[in-house]
Amino acid sequence: MNAIKLLAETPETVTISRIDLEALIDAAENAEDIASVRAWKAYVAAAGHDTAIANSYTAAEAKRLLAGESPVRLWREKRGLTQRALATAAAIPAGYLNEIERGKKPGSVAAYRVLATTLAVAIEDLIGDA
């Protein structure tokens, strides 16, 4: 990127051309993309390729989440568990898990912690955009 030419400057503001602004935005977006790729590669190196893929969303799964499906349900199915099996492993009532998955109950922090541990995911992966 070439040097940015200041058009005007005050103690509170700086004015630059639109071309320079767009170049700055592009550079920031590129840096963010590069950082994401580096973070993904570091994760794959640390966790292993198969684990990294198993802990990532497929396009179809991402669409399900975007459509509002329960992240708990998605991860449960991704791990190949029935509701009853997950509830048993997490030591929570199956009916309670069903209500969490259907959005009928919000679920307690304690329930999400144990579900995250049982499913081997971060608790943030289960909360979604709620």
Q: What gap, in angstroms, lies between the N and C termini? A: 40 Å
Q: Gyration radius, to the nearest Å?
A: 22 Å
Mean of the pLDDT scores? Answer: 93
**Amount of beta strand:** 5-15%
Number of domains: 2
CATH superfamily of the largest domain: lambda repressor-like DNA-binding domains
Number of strands: 2
Spell out the helices and strands N to C: EEHHHHHHHH
- Main sheet properties: 2 strands, antiparallel
The strand line-up of the biggest sheet is: 1-2
CATH architecture heading of the largest domain: Orthogonal Bundle
Query: Within the CATH hierarchy, at the fold level, what is the topology of the largest domain?
Result: 434 Repressor (Amino-terminal Domain)
Helix content: 55-70%
- What is the number of helical segments per DSSP (H or I, 4+ residues)? 8
Instruction: Give the overall form.
Output: elongated
Q: Structural class, from helix and strand content?
A: mainly alpha
- CATH domain class of the largest domain: Mainly Alpha
Which residue ranges are poorly predicted, with pLDDT under 50 across at least 5 consecutive positions? Answer: none
Tell me about this structure.
The chain has two domains: 6-50; 57-127, lambda repressor-like DNA-binding domains (434 Repressor (Amino-terminal Domain)). It is built from eight helices and two strands; from the N terminus they run E-E-H-H-H-H-H-H-H-H. The chain has helices at residues 18-47, 49-54, 59-66, 71-78, 83-90, 94-101, 109-119, 123-127; strands at 6-9, 14-16. Strand 1 and strand 2 form a beta hairpin. Helix 5 packs across helix 6 (94-101) and helix 5 (83-90) packs across helix 7 (109-119). The radius of gyration is 22 Å and the shape is elongated. The mean pLDDT is 93.
